[in-house]
Amino acid sequence: MKFKSETMNRQKRHKPAEIGKALRLNAGDKLNCFVNEEEQIVLVPAKGSIKDLKGMFPKPKKAATQEDIDSAVAEEAASRMADL
Description:
By secondary structure, the protein is an alpha+beta fold.
């Protein structure tokens, strides 16, 4: 998708057509919006089942092992505790 600058309309309902198409949005669909830790805006369709997400994201190059998951969780927990 190319970068495109858009202007929000007065009803705050404007979205670039490419984003609507990529997220498979229809009129009346809802979006969950949030700002992640990198201060990027993330839009997630608030509809359907988790199965609808199939094909929207690339498959990981390598499956995470339980050890990888445990390590990542421990690192994040330690990082959050350090911030307190």
